[in-house]
Amino acid sequence: MIFDDEIDKIFKKISYPFINVDELFKQEKSNIDSSPYYYGYALTIGPDGKPVIREYGNVKPGSLLTSKTKEPLIDKIVNADVVKLVTEMPGLDKSNIKITTDEDKIQIKGEHGEKKYYIETKLDENIDKNSGSAKYTNGILEVKFNLIKTQKPKTKTIEIK
User: Fold this and answer.
1) What is the distance between the alpha carbons of residues 99 and 85, in angstroms, rounded to a whole number?
2) Buried b (16+ CB within 10 A) or exposed e, 55-74
3) Is the pLDDT of residue 87 over 60?
4) DSSP single-letter state for residue 95
5) Nearest-angstrom CA–CA distance, 51 and 19
6) Which tens digit of pLDDT belongs to each residue from 25-71?
7) 3-state secondary structure at position 158
8) What pLDDT, on the 0 to 100 scale, is given for residue 42?
9) N or C: which end of the chain has fewer CB within 10 A?
10) Residue 87, SS3?
11) Share of the chain residues as helix, strand and coil, in percent rounded to the nearest 5
12) How far is C-alpha 62 from the geometric centre of its chain's CA atoms?
């Protein structure tokens, strides 16, 4: 049938650019890292009762996929005398994790083969940096610091001369 052959030719001419684009996507897909990319917000209530909003993830909006390092979500638990930070970092050994504290920040880095993690968070509490301890079990890292209790000044009467 001549009519069917003509329609096939027209269809092939029309669809040719789309077939090439499909092949291009298949080639590029094979070059892209298959690890997950994520981004989000975490909303928590601080010890003062005010909401705290934090960004997390290994990709920021509007940016290209630039890093294979994952930013784990970190939970901060503040008790009367202890600050406890908990984060998930599966696939590591405790020897692959490095924890450092600065004036008001804590940095946690971990790397083992393809697994790379990095998180930096601000510590608003007055902590004793020398009291820091960490425990890593089954992919869960817990870091604890003792709070420094500030003593309120005692009342003192001042004489007028």
Assistant:
1) 12
2) ebbbbeeeeeeeeeebbbeb
3) yes
4) G
5) 51
6) 665 555 555 556 667 778 888 778 888 887 777 666 655 445 578 88
7) coil
8) 80
9) C
10) strand
11) 20, 40, 40
12) 17
Cα distance between residue 49 and residue 60, in whole Å = 28
Percent of the chain with pLDDT over 90: 22
Q: Write out the two tokens for 94.
A: 């405790």
Contact 60, 40 (CB under 8 A): no
Q: Which residues pair with 120 in a beta bridge?
A: 107
Q: Which of these, 123, 119, 160, 159, lies nearest to 144 by C-alpha position?
A: 123
pTM of the full structure: 0.58
| First CA to last CA distance, the chain | 120
Contact by Cβ (8 Å): 85, 121? yes
Q: Give, for 30, the enclosing helix (H) or strand (E).
A: helix 2-31
Residue 121 pairs with which residues in a beta bridge? 106
| CA distances, 155 to each of 118, 150, 152, 158 (Å) | 47, 15, 9, 10
When the pLDDT of each residue in the chain is averaged and rounded to a whole number, the result is 79
If phi over 0 gives left and psi between -120 and 50 gives alpha, with beta otherwise, what is residue 3? alpha
Which residue's structure tokens are 């880095």?
Answer: 109
